[in-house]
Amino acid sequence: DTAVSQTPKYLVTQMGNDKSIKCEQNLGHDTMYWYKQDSKKFLKIMFSYNNKELIINETVPNRFSPKSPDKAHLNLHINSLELGDSAVYFCASSRAPLGGTEQYFGPGTRLTVT
Amino acid sequence: ILNVEQSPQSLHVQEGDSTNFTCSFPSSNFYALHWYRWETAKSPEALFVMTLNGDEKKKGRISATLNTKEGYSYLYIKGSQPEDSATYLCAFIRGSGYSTLTFGKGTMLLVSP
Question: What are the average pLDDT values for consecutive 10-residue runs of chain B, which has 113 residues?
Answer without folding.
Answer: 88 96 92 94 94 95 97 97 97 76 94 96
